[in-house]
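Before relying on records like the one below, remember that each one covers exactly one chain. Contacts with other chains, cofactors or solvent are not represented anywhere in the record.
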Amino acid sequence: MGSSEVDLVKSENLKLRNYISLVYAEIELSQRLNEIRQNFTSLPYSERITKPILDRISQIMREKSALENELKLI
């Protein structure tokens, strides 16, 4: 295996690790979001808390999608 092949494998490995981290983060944030929605039934207060979490989940999903396309996971 040549040096460029090793670099390619290392790069793909790093991207896969990043992808896995994003999957875990999405799961964790989704669980937290569900807990918040269960514990805070007051809509205005709940929305103030959940909006940043929803924004972050959306960002994670975009990053995951880009990696899925790049790594041909889908």
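The chain has one domain: 3-71.
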